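Teaching note: in complex prediction, the entire set of molecules is handled at once rather than each chain in isolation. The prompt given to students was simply: 'Predict the structure of this complex.' The entities are:
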Amino acid sequence: MDLLRFATAGSVDDGKSTLIGRLLYDSKSIFTDQLEAVERASVNMGAEYTELSLLTDGLRAEREQGITIDVAYRYFSTSKRKFIIADTPGHIQYTRNMVTGASTADLAIVLVDARKGLLEQSRRHAFLVSLLRVPHLVLAINKMDLVGWSEEVFDKIRQEFIEFAAKLDIPDLTIIPVSALAGDNVVTQSENMPWYTGVPLLNHLESVYVGSDQNLVDGRFPVQYVIRPHSNEFHDYRGYAGRIASGVMKVGDEVVVLPSGLPSRIIGIDFGGKPIEEAVAQMSVTVRLADDLDISRGDMICRPNNQPEVTQEIDAMVAWMSDEPLIPGQKYAIKHTTRRTRAFVKDIHYELDVNTLHRNEAATALSLNMIGRIKLRTTTPLLADPYSRNRETGGFVLINERTNATVGAGMVVRT
Amino acid sequence: MNDSIGGVGRRHLSQLQVLEAEAMYIIREVVAEVENPAMMFSGGKDSIVMLHLAAKAFAPSAIPFPLLHIDTGHNFPEVLEFRDYCVSKYRVNLMVGSVQDAIDRNMVFEDRNGSRNRIQTPVLLETAAKHGFNALLGGARRDEEKARAKERVFSFRDEFGQWDPKDQRPELWNIYNGHMQLGESMRVFPLSNWTELDVWDYIATEGVEVPSIYYSHQREVFERNGMWFAANSFCKPTKDEQTSVRNVRYRTVGDATLTAAVLSEADTVEKIIEEIRETRVTERGATRGDDKFSEAAMEDRKKEGYF
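The expected output is the structure of the full assembly:
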């Protein structure tokens, strides 16, 4: 069985939490004690029907205000797949939380209220999904029951979205008319919309092909930790532990270690103390090399003919996540793969209006929830690929050195 | 589940392989980023799986941190024995913080109902401070409870050990920010994305040993609030509560005064997996008295520094 991580986005009233509640409920992934708790809470708040959104809004403040503030993770599985849902808040003031949820997603569902059509926020959500390079997007046009199950309404929104999406980089788009409240086209095919010939949402989630989303071409192994046992039996053992960011590593491969550029060869790959012949992207393994080189955490093992840039100058898109604005001249700690160094903001190229995609080149700062393109100089080199090619070696975070808070999410555009 | 963990027959990993790799990565990241970590260890199935993952992450080296157990004094003897067996099997150090000792020192006071759940927290904070632990690995999972569903993998705690759910550090991709100032700490949850079923599938695939009370056995029990409690020195039936010997097993292992058994015939890992696939009640819902007090019981305890 394989795993699909998906994120959902929609605003306060689009019915996002209801949709997730419906997916869990109709796929029989809700337990009776959870449902009883939600039923009790629904009665207590005076709701006329069981408020499925209460299943995901887990914090006291969220239930009080009836909104989603932070990402909630939910788990369910069918006979075909296991799913991890990152339920993200849609309101602009929680953009950072949506970016967080989308960063690990294979697929994103953006909800639109059929009565309202595309709003600024629908465009913003679609833009963030493309910025984070989530490979698959589903536009779920919800509340079809409230527009008389109208094909005309659906087509109009669909057409408008396709025109907008043409400006974005969205490799795979699927548009589904649903009613989360009534359950139409969520798990079972809607009888009210015979004109819709596609599959219900859950079928799509179960069958969307994600095998080719993994980068198995660029061998990248960021060294996480050096293993040197203090025991007589393994006196000469020296292994480099890490998780393969992309590509495949095999015993016998010629490699080069960055940033030093020194060549070597893989003489062993160990997994949980046992030797294996090859390791693929996402696996946590320990690699042993033929030569005794000076290698430490933050270095990277890759192939001689396929290397990331070794650079101290980076152009990146950054989503700002702090109340203290990003301004040129500021210094931050930067964490990229397993490497930590310091970065200095040389310039802000522009701030991007996430609703209109207009570039404001006069911007002198990026404040909370803003997205912009910046130039950074780092104190030691990063070993980076463009984010568009590699999410693992193209993403980084900026950290406030005084508070240690994570303040920015960066995506390398050009090195 | 036929996927052999670690075998690379195909290039797309199974969900269990992905979860395992992620957990190993997280455990290594803690050791690389934080100076003085420890792993919470109760002898329960989640902490046993976490310990097994730690051994795999650092092999052939020894596990580079000690274990920490907050001993409520209300233990199932089988679990305590198993805890000590694991300590010798994995050759790790074990530190114990004793709630009974803290009660004797008048540092904490038992609730009127005899529960020691809430008073574990000050003992945990005191013991961590005594040993200078600034990161604690825990086996909690997001599918267990709705406040946990909101918590980060690297969960930052202020100098009082408190969690602030409204101001969590954004956690992007698999980049974890373990940096903090003196007095602050981290709680780290490598099994965040695992479900109860994943844990059992993993136990089956890897042949991980767990204490006998997880398997069906005969025990003298009585029914209270729809749950089956063992009749023992911590938990005595009232006059109206009839005891009987039944086939039961435990789905979770916690404070013996609060943890109920479930009626079950599942005496092998395979049968347990089958049972969990069929069940319509959550792990905590079936067995824990402590979460039923309020909608936000767990959130409130976590804010105070609970795991």
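Point out the following to students. The helical segments of chain A are 16-26, 32-44, 60-65, 95-103, 120-131, 151-165, 201-207, 391-394. Residues 309-414 of chain A form a domain with the Elongation Factor Tu (Ef-tu); domain 3 fold (CATH 2.40.30.10).
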